[in-house]
Amino acid sequence: MQTTRLRTPAANTLSPIELAYNNILDSILSGEFAPGERIPAESVATALGISRMPVRDALRRLEADGAVMTFANRGASVAHYSDEEIVQLVEMAAVLEGFAARHALDHFGESELDDLEELKQRMDRSNGSPARWLVRHDEFHDYITALGGKPLLQQQIERIRVMLWPYRPRDPAMDQIELLGRQHQTIIDTIRAKEPDCVEQTVRDHVLKGIDVLLPSAAMTAPARFAPAAGALARRAEQTQIRETGR
């Protein structure tokens, strides 16, 4: 899946379909096209200097990616998901990202842990710019997923992220950023402890926190979702200390 937020080849090397795909996707991710809003294929074609056929092909690809919905006699619109569907998507992402983190664990050495720490520090340094912080946040998670060496799994995670992106707040509150920042440190700590079950559960709980960010009315359940993984890490540390001291 091509995503203009990541790496995009120069516009003059793209086919008309790829050009239209990236242009429309970027407009969706930037909020220019809101959920449920009709995508004017004719205007896109005119702006890009291409015919309407590659725009239609691009819209079909975006529909397959879950970013667009098409309706008879109405054309294509940005996909609109209900609150329940958003919850389902986040729950799916939590399972997939937790699974990916578990499989990435064997590939984490000191060098990779240093890289992950640096990515977290980049997030911390971006606190003053929510938009930049969101990009750094995704880089952190992409790094873990990529280490798992499962490209199909990585594609599915990215697909769900694209589906949810229009619902992400463009200006997340600082308390949300600070809470998520602490959770990222917990993820690093569990990876360093090399406990597969704990790593998978910690990442799942962290991703589930996205429900509270996307649907603030669900925020009251946040402590219950993240507490189990944090508690598990503490219990693991206590058990390790007991084994080492012989007490």
Describe the protein.
The structure is a single chain. The protein is mainly alpha-helical and 247 residues long. It folds into 2 domains: 11-78, Winged helix-like DNA-binding domain superfamily/Winged helix DNA-binding domain (Arc Repressor Mutant, subunit A); 83-245, Up-down Bundle (Four Helix Bundle (Hemerythrin (Met), subunit A)). It is 68% helix and 3% strand. The protein has a two-stranded antiparallel ribbon. A hairpin with a 3-residue loop joins strand 1 and strand 2 (75-78). Helix 1 crosses helix 3 (52-64) and helix 4 (83-104) packs across helix 6. The longest helix is centred in the C-terminal third of the chain and has 24 residues, at 222-245.
Short account of what is shown:
This protein has 247 residues and is mainly α. 68% of the residues lie in helices and 3% in strands.
Describe the secondary-structure layout.
Blueprint: H1 16-29, H2 41-48, H3 52-64, E1 68-71, E2 75-78, H4 83-104, H5 110-125, H6 130-147, H7 151-164, H8 174-193, H9 196-208, H10 210-214, H11 222-245
Strand content: under 5%
Biggest pleated-sheet summary: 2 strands, antiparallel
Shape: elongated
Q: With helices defined by DSSP (H or I, 4 residues minimum), what is the helix count?
A: 11
Task: Report the mean per-residue pLDDT as an integer.
Answer: 83
Which fold name corresponds to the CATH topology of the largest domain? Four Helix Bundle (Hemerythrin (Met), subunit A)
Features:
247 residues; mainly alpha; Arc Repressor Mutant, subunit A; Four Helix Bundle (Hemerythrin (Met), subunit A); 2 strands; disordered C terminus
